[in-house]
Specification:
Blueprint lengths: L18 H29 L3 H12 L4 E3 H8 L3 H13 L3 E6 L2 E9 L1 H21 L6 H17 L14
Antiparallel strand pairs: 1-3, 2-3
Helix pairs in contact: 1-5, 3-4
């Protein structure tokens, strides 16, 4: 009887990007990187905070009673709970956010936007909106804006599986 190992099947050839796809991909990467840098610099200059921190303040400002559970805030920000905890600690130092224990869950905490944080958000929002408008919306036709929104929703939905146990940042 022959007991020699069977050779492994040949690996399938990768589905390489076509030249057109490669151009689209690289354009996306370049634009996303430049846009994030542009918005970070604007927010650092105007409010002394990175874009991610501004996004946390916005989400809290839009939430009922300006508060969210930390796990929910991590999900909205698409970041790990550890990274959120670090960001909230920095925002707490500035007096813009405070943490409150969750009365119904001893392990849970809320992040709460303070009055000072709300005032910073109100002062910073007009400049930020102007930067976003100038960098994105003023350059696109209404039809291009609609297409961009639809495309980004499709990509985001595909990267957030609804199955339990998905490897998503806010679950880590």
């Amino acid at each position: 009887m022959n007991t020699a190992p069977t050779p492994a099947p040949a690996a399938a050839e990768p589905r390489w990007l076509s030249p057109g796809e490669q151009l689209v991909w690289r354009s996306y990467i370049e634009a996303a990187t430049l846009l994030e840098d542009h918005l970070d610099r604007q927010l650092q200059r105007d409010a002394g905070m990175p874009h991610m921190y501004y996004g946390l303040l916005v989400k809290l400002g839009e939430s009922p009673r300006r508060r969210l559970r930390m796990t929910e805030l991590a999900r909205h920000a698409k970041i790990t709970r550890s990274r959120l905890s670090h960001a909230v600690a920095r925002l707490e130092k500035n007096g813009w956010v405070r943490r409150e224990d969750c009365p119904s869950d001893k392990r849970g905490q809320f992040a709460v936007l303070t009055d000072e944080g709300y005032a910073v958000l109100a002062r910073t929002a007009p400049g930020h909106v102007a930067a976003v408008r100038q960098a994105v919306f003023d350059r696109l036709t209404p039809q291009q804006q609609e297409s961009l929104g639809e495309i980004m929703r499709i990509v985001a939905e595909g990267l957030q599986p609804a199955t339990a146990g998905a490897d998503l940042p806010w679950l880590r």
